[in-house]
């Protein structure tokens, strides 16, 4: 039986969180294993006080976690906080915006943006999509690995992200978008071979829900979830969201590969909050997962095959939610465009057409005055934001001066630091398991 503990925690009170984390670690029986080099992987795809205030692991939560881990490991080595943010924004900037840099005032902590780290290439034995992956050294060269996800909804992976999906953030950027389409669930399961945490402590005090995975709004759930098995952990999280774990493809695939149980009958669930109470609380909370062409908006979206939840279709839905989350006025008044995604069977005879995705084409008559295309399989969020601005004049909320500076000024500096650090290091290919 894999243990999962859910404890009530109505706010980010430091002493309350420390007590919960301390007793959780004891309850899971991992105290003797916490020693040597400890790496923590939080979830900070994007953090910004105005446009992305709720979709990342809160610094207060990490503060409590750090105090407890320091109390156990008792050595002079710094704890490493390792992350690789998304949307082409350098992680170092996200560490600053998430107020993680301040954590160094009270903790012996090394912030380690993965783009700037030394990297290693690993061969995978069970990989279906990836035969090798390139990851930052702290994810591999460690004695104890802690995942500290933020519980939130995510339309790219069937509606929910918890511990397993965190692994997309251990990948070196160039590989991150590889097969990030209809294969995303398989890809995520591949990564468990390297990204298999020893401990999971989830910030679900406030969860982020219902919109874009980065910009969506916070909802108070008031719990901390703790486990050592990522599949059991995510299966419980799925129940909290009202999903059956057997409907989430990446969970099914992870279970099939032997990484953990899906069924509650095989999970030892304990704590001071019942699953039923949490399900009642989340009842009616929209997770936003739906086919992109069913949105009731001014865009006429024509979905073709393949339908890529983890690719163009999902990223388009996420882009639209970003506008809805942070600029509802624009969302209601989007200019009329027909957006085609995938190979669309049928005629398209309209004034303006945007083709999204490298494989996209109209198998039928295409007649239009204005035809634009956004390439990529899939295009990255950053590309969608820029290209919709340049080609359709639609300014998504992330298209703002500070984000542009982060991306196009600080981004290359981060990349350069990483390139310099990896000069002369030959890729060492080892099998992790
Ligand atoms: S380009 Fe085609 S295959 Fe690739 S993500 Fe987009 S819709 Fe899917």
Strand content: 15-25%
Q: Would you give the CATH topology of the largest domain?
A: Rossmann fold
Put simply, the count of helices is 13
**Which CATH architecture of the largest domain is right?**
3-Layer(aba) Sandwich
**Largest sheet at a glance?**
9 strands, mixed
Number of DSSP strands? 18
Uncertain stretches of 5 or more adjacent residues: 428-433
The number of domains is 2
- Mean pLDDT, all residues: 94
CATH class label of the largest domain: Alpha Beta
* Secondary structure category: alpha/beta
Q: Can you give the helix content as a percent range?
A: 25-40%
The span between the termini is 23 Å
| Overall shape | globular
Give me the CATH superfamily of the largest domain.
Answer: LarA, N-terminal domain
Small-molecule components bound: iron/sulfur cluster
Cα Rg: 21 Å
Layout of strands and helices, then pairs:
Elements: E1 2-8, H1 14-28, E2 38-42, H2 59-73, E3 79-83, H3 91-97, E4 109-113, E5 119-123, E6 132-136, H4 137-140, E7 144-148, E8 150-152, H5 173-176, H6 184-191, E9 199-209, E10 217-227, H7 230-241, H8 249-256, E11 267-271, H9 275-282, E12 300-303, H10 312-326, H11 328-332, E13 338-345, E14 348-349, E15 352-363, E16 366-367, E17 370-374, H12 381-392, H13 401-421, E18 430-431
Parallel strand pairs: 1-11, 2-3, 2-7, 3-4, 5-18, 7-9, 8-9, 12-13, 13-15, 14-16, 15-17
Antiparallel strand pairs: 1-10, 5-6, 9-10
Helix pairs in contact: 1-2, 6-8, 7-9
What are its keywords?
433 residues, alpha/beta, 18 strands, 4-stranded parallel beta sheet, 9-stranded mixed beta sheet, binds iron/sulfur cluster
């Amino acid at each position: 039986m894999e243990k999962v503990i859910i404890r009530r925690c109505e706010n980010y009170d430091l002493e309350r969180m420390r007590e919960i984390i301390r007793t959780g670690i004891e309850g899971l029986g991992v105290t003797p294993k916490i020693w040597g080099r400890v790496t923590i992987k939080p979830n900070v795809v994007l953090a910004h006080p105005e446009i992305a205030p709720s979709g990342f692991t809160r610094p207060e939560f990490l503060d409590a976690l750090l105090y407890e881990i320091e109390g156990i490991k008792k050595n002079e080595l710094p704890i490493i906080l390792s992350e690789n943010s998304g949307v082409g924004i350098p992680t170092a900037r996200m560490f600053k915006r998430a107020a993680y840099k301040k954590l160094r005032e009270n903790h012996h902590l090394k912030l380690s943006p993965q783009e700037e780290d030394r990297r290693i290439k690993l061969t995978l034995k069970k990989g279906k999509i990836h035969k090798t992956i390139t990851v930052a050294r702290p994810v591999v060269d460690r004695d104890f690995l802690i995942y500290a996800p933020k519980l939130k909804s995510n339309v790219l992976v069937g509606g929910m992200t918890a511990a397993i999906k965190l692994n997309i953030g251990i990948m070196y950027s160039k590989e991150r978008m590889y097969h990030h389409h209809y294969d995303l669930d398989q890809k995520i399961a591949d990564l468990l071979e390297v990204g298999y945490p020893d401990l999971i402590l989830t910030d679900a005090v406030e969860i982020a829900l219902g919109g874009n995975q980065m910009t969506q709004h916070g909802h108070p759930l008031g719990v901390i979830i703790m486990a050592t098995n990522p599949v059991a952990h995510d299966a419980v999280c799925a129940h909290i969201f009202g999903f059956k774990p057997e409907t989430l493809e990446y969970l099914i695939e992870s279970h099939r590969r032997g990484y953990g149980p899906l069924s509650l009958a095989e999970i030892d669930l304990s704590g001071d909050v019942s699953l039923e109470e949490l399900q009642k609380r989340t009842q009616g909370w929209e997770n936003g997962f739906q086919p992109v062409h069913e949105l009731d908006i001014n865009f006429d979206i024509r979905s073709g095959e393949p339908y890529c939840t983890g690719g163009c279709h999902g990223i388009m839905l996420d882009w639209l939610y970003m506008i809805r989350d942070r600029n509802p006025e624009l969302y209601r008044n989007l200019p009329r465009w027909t957006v085609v995604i995938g190979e669309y069977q049928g005629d398209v005879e309209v004034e303006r057409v945007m083709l999204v995705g490298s494989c996209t084409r109209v198998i039928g008559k295409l007649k239009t005055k204005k035809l634009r295309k956004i390439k990529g399989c899939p295009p990255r969020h950053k590309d969608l934001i820029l290209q919709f601005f340049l080609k359709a004049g639609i300014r998504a909320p992330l298209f703002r001066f500070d984000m542009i500076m982060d991306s196009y000024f600080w981004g290359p500096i981060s990349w350069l630091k990483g390139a310099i650090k990896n000069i002369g290091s030959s890729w060492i290919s080892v099998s992790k398991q």
